[in-house]
Amino acid sequence: MRASSEGAAPVRAADGPSPELNEVIDRVGLVDHHAHSVVSGTVDRDAYAFMLDESDRPASARAAGLDTQVAFAVRRWCAPLLGLAPDASLDEFLRARLALSARDAVARFLPSARLDRLLVETGYRGDELMATPQLERLAETPVSTVARLETIAESVATEAPAARDFADAVRRSIEAALAAGAVGLKSIVAYRAGLDVDPRRPSDAEVERAAAAWLATLGPGSRPRLVDPVLLRFLLWAAVDTGRPLQVHTGFGDPDLHLRRSDPLLLTDFIRLAEGRGPILLLHTYPFHREAGYLAQMFEHVYVDVGLAVNYTGAQSPHVIAESLELAPFRRILFSSDAWGLPELHLIGSLLFRRGLSRVLGQWVVDGDWPLADAERVVRMIAAENARRVYGLSDEPDEGRGAVEPDRPAPDES
Ligand SMILES: [Zn+2]
What we know:
Order of helices and strands: HEHHHHHEHEHHEHHHEHEHEHHHH
Structural class: alpha/beta
Number of domains: 2
Strand content: 5-15%
Helix content: 40-55%
CATH topology of the largest domain: TIM Barrel
CATH class of the largest domain: Alpha Beta
CATH superfamily of the largest domain: Metal-dependent hydrolases
Largest sheet: 7 strands, parallel
CATH architecture of the largest domain: Alpha-Beta Barrel
Shape: globular
Bound molecules: zinc ion
Low-confidence stretches: 1-7, 396-414
Strand order of the largest sheet: 1-2-3-4-5-6-7
Number of strands: 7
Radius of gyration: 21 Å
C-alpha cells in the first residue's frame, strides 16, 4: 500500500493567496483522527440525501432536497472525479454517482483525500459498514481503529455478568480493545446524558448499584442501550485511567443530542480532575469551537478539531477554520472529517480543510503577519504531526509512541 502523500498528483483544493503555501497544503498527507467506515451496498436517491444530512428524520433530509452546504460541496468536489464538470447539475451528478457500487465509490473518491492515515471509530452502526481491511485496500490508506466505550459496555452487558463484576469486565474489554490495536477510545456521553454529568469518578458501590439496576432491565436477546449517567461517568474514568487518547463528542451532531448540553465548557471540571492522565480530544465542537479553543489553551491535555462542521458548513467553512485557529495552541489542533457512510464525506472533509487552511493562513502570510515558514510548520502540525504524536501512530519512526509530551509544566491553580 502506498502512502497517499507519495501518490498521484493531488486534487488542487488550496486556492489561498500564497502560492507557496497552497503547494504545501495540497501535497501534505492528512491524518483524519476521527471518521467512520462507509456503507457496503448501493444507495438510492433518498438514502443518499439522508446520509448527507445530520437529521435522523428521513423526511427532513428529503425535503431539504440536497440544497445544503454539504451537498453543494459534495457535487463541486466529486463531480470531476466522476468525469463531470464541477458545476454539473444535481440530476447529472446523481445519475453518475448512484450508478457506483460502494466499492467503486470508495476507490473513486477516497484516494484523492490524500490521507496518510484514517482513524475509524467502529462503534456506531459498525455492522452496516464496510470492514476495515476492505476499506483500507480500496482507500489506499492505512486505517487504525478507535473503540467506542458505550459499545464496549453494552457488549459486556449482553454477557449478563453479575453487577459486582461489571466494572472489571468492562475494564478488561477496554484493555482488550487497546491490545487488539485500537489507538484510542471514544465517549458519546454528550448523546446519552449530556456533558453536564457529575464530573467525579463514581465509587465502586455506585457503579455496582447502577449496573445492577441496568442489567436487571435486560432480557435475553435485548439490545442494551447505556444511558445511566453513573455508568457513563464510570466509562470516562475507565478510559482516562488507561492513559490512552480519549475522544469525546462535543457540539453539533444528530438530534439524539441536546446541543445545549454538548457545550465542551460543561466538561471543564472533568478536564481539571483528569489532569495528569491521557489526552482528551474534544471532537468537532461546533458551534462551541471557540469555547473548545479556550479549553485547549488552558489545559495541556486538551485537543480540539472542527471536523463535521467543515463538511456541513461547506463553502463557509474557512470562517469556521479561522475561528478554530484563534485561541487553541496550534500543537493542540487536529484534523478530522467525522465522515460516516459515504466516501465523498471523507473526501470533502480533506479538500475543504485544505482550502480553508490555505485561505486563512495564506492571508496571514501575504499580509505579513506570519512568516511563510511558520505557516508551513503549522500546516504540518495540524495536518498530521499532532495526531501522530497524540495517538503514537507507528508510521512515523521519529515520533514518540503512546506517551504525550507535555507542552510545558502543569499550570498552578491561579
Ligand atoms: Zn463520529
